[in-house]
Protein: Multicopper oxidase CueO
Amino acid sequence: FLRGLAAAPIVAAAGCALGQGSSTPKETGMRPLPLPPLAESVVDASGVRQFALVAAPGNSSMLAGKTTATWGYNGSQLGPTIRARRGEQVAFTIQNALPEPTSVHWHGMHVPAEFDGGPHQTIEAGATWKPTWTVKQPAATLWYHPHPHGSTEKHVYRGLAGMFIVDDDESDALGLPNSYGVDDFPVIVADRRFTSDGELDDTDPTDVGLLGDTIVTNGIAGAYLSVSTELVRLRLLNGSSGRLYNFGFADDRDFDVIASDGGLLTEPFAAKRIQLSPGERIEIVVAVQSGETTMLRSYPIDRFGGVEQSDAAAYGLTDSFDILELRSAARLVGSLPLPATLATIDAPNSAAAVVNREFVLQWFMINGVRMDMNRIDFTPTVDTTEVWTVHNKDNWPHNFHVHDTQFQILDIDGSPPPPALAGWKDTVYTPPGQRIRLALRFSEYTDPTFPYMYHCHLLLHEDKGMMGQFLVLAPGQKAEPMTMDMPMD
Ligand code: C2O
Ligand code: CU
Structure:
């Protein structure tokens, strides 16, 4: 079994109809969804919440009956779920026990640039890194993963990824399911390819990166989750390198979508399908009946994600997979109904934008250039609003991720965003040919030496150079970027 990952509490599912509305998993028998443990922390005398992470190799049981060499934080793969409250100062001691340099990036988190964990904050093999910051953003499901220059795909594929849940008073007051591992579950979805002896196969990437034929949910294939409450909250993370998912239940039941990348939506909305590109998160609440079984699946991507039908299969857009079977107990604990409103979104005022920028995604480049660690692409001014237009000129999938801030989507090819894309976002799918306009605000942390990144979150594309850098500066401040050796090319 997965070292460092405890099984979810198993609730007897008396009389449940196994396999109803679901296909049989490839593995012999299903296994309970591993629940990443909550990261232990100590609050020191000055009120700082201290965490410790060790990135190290290990062995995992991703496939039943087989052992796979993997990398993980505080365990053989994935990592503990970090939980902190808005307003709290957090501090990490991160030790790199891997055979090569890595980094730890706090995806979706507003962090001082020097602690952002991007390619400028490499942790050498054997070294330790100690980032610290104060959490200054609303409740959200964020995540952490490596971001070393040119090898992010490999490090994430090996298993390095964990969730970072931010809590706040407003979300606590809503009565949402929020007992970790009881009615609130992290669900990290990734695709992997295995060699015949059960090792990870990272050869032959497609144009969109490594595509696997096996889905692993919280690190295992063929996962089921025993649930014991009427409402179940799933925090879905697309932790894949290049695969898109279109989540929905095999019996087509509705579920409520309550949050996107950066936190709660203004109100829940009912959906049957929800699409996630690499790096994106969505929180859903699903109602279950006692003693039933239903399969969370991924369906072919709507309209092939805007890609030509003839190319869709090669990019994995026509695939469907079982993701996680929910098995509900014979008797369920009652849940509070979802509130009608969830959060107030204080959106940046795009009419007051001081700068418009254009980002053309094409041929593994952004605006015709590849990532250069010694080039600052632009320097937004702190406390100003910008409007960015992202245009995918390729005919294959890309997405767009921005560090440091959460953005609002203004429009997609001129149309307002659908409800799933109307909340705070840090990553957005960019269909071929389309233009997406974002409104962003950079609120602080002016460090003239360390840049933040923006990039395609299809990890092969990022590694190939579809990434750029910006410094958030105070008015009149000068950029003083550090000169780095480029380990790539
Ligand atoms: Cu999830 Cu720049 O990364
Ligand atoms: Cu891309």
